[in-house]
Amino acid sequence: MAESLCDLTCTPCRGGIDPMGPDEAALQLAGVPGWSLLDEGRRLERRYTFPDFRSALAFVDRVGALAESQGHHPDLALGWGWVTVAWWTHKIGGLHLNDFIMAAKTDSLL
Questions:
Q1: What's the domain range around 30?
Q2: Residue 40: CATH number of its domain
Q3: CA 28 to CA 63: how far, in whole Å?
Q4: 8-38 residue pLDDT tens
Q5: Is 99 within 8 Å of 35 (Cβ atoms)?
Q6: Whether the Cβ atoms of residue 50 and residue 59 lie closer than 8 Å to each other
Q7: HSE (CB half, 13 Å, CA atoms) of 35?
Q8: H/E/C letters for each residue in 8-35?
Q9: If you count Cβ atoms within 10 Å of the first and of the last residue's Cβ in the chain, which end, N or C, has fewer?
Q10: Residues 6+ apart with CB under 8 A from 11
Q11: CA distance 21 to 39
Q12: Cα four-point dihedral sign 45, 40, 72, 74
């Protein structure tokens, strides 16, 4: 049985590698329903909705704790009843498998 993305752990990315190409990113996207590829396939993003600000803020806190535990950090935007999470690997200027792992782990926090 294959491991799901959520079961994997981020591996340190020190740069010096090419980002994932658009075809591979599109294949990986199937493993994280609800997420979108942006910036010509160089960024992964999802908007979550919540019933109030407190719930949205609590989710941001959980995402932050996850990011610290994995050593990989998203861009987060927070508003009343919504949070947008964006993953990409800054050191390579695009997507890496780590970003899809983190997207799956982010979904598991709901």
A1: 25-108
A2: 3.30.1360.20
A3: 21
A4: 888 877 778 899 999 999 999 999 999 999 9
A5: no
A6: yes
A7: 28
A8: CCCCCCCCCCCCCCHHHHHHHHCCCCCC
A9: N
A10: 98
A11: 12
A12: negative
Residues 6+ apart with CB under 8 A from 102: 10, 66, 67, 70, 72, 74, 87
Q: What is the pLDDT of residues 47-96, one digit of tens each?
A: 999 999 999 999 999 999 999 999 999 999 999 999 999 999 999 999 99
Tokens at 93, concatenated = 């200027």
The DSSP secondary structure of 58-89, one letter per residue, reads HHHHHHHHHHHHHT---EEEEETTEEEEEE-B
User: How many Cα atoms are found within 13 Å in the side-chain-facing hemisphere of 66?
Assistant: 25
Is residue 13, in this structure, part of any structural domain at all? no
Domain membership of residue 48 (yes or no) is yes
Overall number of domains in the chain: 1
